[in-house]
Amino acid sequence: MTLEDRIREELSAEAAGMAFPPGSIERVTRRAVRWTSTVRVAAGLAAALAVVFVVALITSPGPTGPAVGPPDEDPGTTVSTGVEPTVTTSAPAGSDGRSTAIATPDGIVLVDGGEVVDHIDLGPVMLAVPDGRGGFVVQIGQSARSILWLSAPGADPVEVVPADAGVVLRLHEVTEIDGVTSVVYTVRRSGPDVAPEDVTEELRVMALDTGEETNLGPVGGYESTVLRVSHTGGRFVASKIAEGYTWFEVVAGGHGGFVNPRTEEQAADDFLVWVGHGVQAADGVTMAFLRGSPRSEAPFTFVVVDLSTGEELMAVPVEGAHETTITRLEWDGRAGIVSLADRPAVVIEDGAVAGTLPVTGIAARGG
Prior knowledge:
Layout: H1 3-13, H2 25-34, H3 38-59, E1 100-104, E2 107-112, E3 115-121, E4 125-130, E5 136-140, E6 147-150, E7 158-161, E8 167-177, E9 180-189, E10 200-207, E11 213-220, E12 224-232, E13 235-242, E14 245-252, H4 264-269, E15 274-280, E16 286-292, E17 301-306, E18 312-317, E19 326-331, E20 335-340, E21 346-349, E22 352-356, E23 362-365
Antiparallel strand pairs: 1-2, 1-23, 2-3, 4-5, 5-6, 6-7, 8-9, 9-10, 10-11, 12-13, 13-14, 15-16, 16-17, 17-18, 19-20, 20-21, 21-22
């Protein structure tokens, strides 16, 4: 079967359900465990904390704490479709030369300065990340299937990471690593024929031009999974979840340690405070994430922290943002984009909500 036939088969199989599911694998896990007993959740919390502190103690070059140092100086290595406009007061200007691609049930919508500038008809797209060279790395359909590359808007898609039975692929970023345009993704192996202790989730990097793949090791297992992986300056930070507890962990490269976005008061009063979708700015100085309580109706908050000091630089409530509606987060050191499953993505600039993007979908920017 040709790649084109495979894509057509996937699209026709999913034509009956064009909406992006509000919760993917990690959200299903999160909602499932929320109703477990307090004892089980507390046990999961203790285990997760132990893992985090062990990683911090082993990998940190100095005293560990609530912040991760800057990268080494010489590092290693939605639901509605359509293009109906919404009221848009502002959007990232893209002065850094990166475009914003919005994955929708009708394909990829390109946005520049808050305006739609192009539409690529591919049918339902789960995620589309600009490759920084005019093309896109995409996952077509509504589930984490094979990863494709469109070298240009009109080019035929080429399958660069095929999906196998019992494997869930999750595209995270396209970024420059040692001068090479690279795809950052995770591979999770599970299924009815896989014993719980054999469930694995690995972080991988693939050079887009050559197809050379590097396995950076496990980042999850039976009781834990990764929400998002962010890379800059040789450092990978993973947003992880296990038994309802969420945290950030440096999984490869750069300085060791971890980011703990909870205050002491939050840790004492509500260890179910949810944090996730952490993304580092390209300069490695700051990181943004979403924080909130699953047991509260209050909207989640877009938070920016200084990775060197742990200082909280920005905290902006985002209307409509909750654990079941957040689909992706972008942060370039100046502006942020919070993608939501049921409404257009929200743009954050200068410490406040600046407006929304013109279509509903999952917004992504290439590295």
